[in-house]
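Journal club side-thread
Mid-discussion, someone asked how the predicted structure for our own chain would compare to the paper's figures. Pasting it here so we can look after the session.
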Amino acid sequence: MHIGATVEAANDATAKVSARVYTSDPYDGDLLALFTGVDIALTGGDAFSACIGAQCRPLTRGFLGLYYEAELPYAAETTYTVSLTRGGAANAPNSFVTLPIPFTILAPAPGLRVTDGDRVTIQWSPAGTDVSVWAETGCDHEDGVRSAKRQRRLAVNVSGGAMVAEVDTILAGMIFFSQARILRCDIAIEVVHDRRGTVDTALGGGAIVGRVSRKVTLDYTPRP
């Protein structure tokens, strides 16, 4: 039995806990592998919870039933624990992780207007460690159709608190739901600071990750 869990703070107030239990380990060091592995169905004799200090919340099935979820306050450098108690099976009460300190995206400014061929400098502080940068795009077409957003990882292990992203690279390979002309797109740039935690030894493996993320959205219009 394996566990895959994230504790993510996308703002300064709350941390969202998302977890799954598997018959095999979906993680090979790449956290994109969240949809592999075979789920173990928890029953009424099982208990799945997340705690920070003495404050605990049950993990319950979230939207579409993909994850067990709970919300807790965000506290940097403080231990979050995910506990699994199974009726008639070994318990795993102590998978834990701490969250990185908060950070601020300094550039680009929200709503920055960009177009084809532009290069965008992304800066944040503090710089942090185990940093990745992502982009998510949604586009409006002339016929009224809005293309689905597509998340794209721009860089991993970014150091120094800065990188440069190319608008053309962000848009490359995006799947559009319409052939009509694009009027504009929202490009959300997300900077993520990750921290690996410790999985309970009663489990066969997996990962628990503490994550602090921040976003800024750009306004793209194509060149005439």
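Post-session note: The chain has two domains: 2-100, 104-195+210-220.
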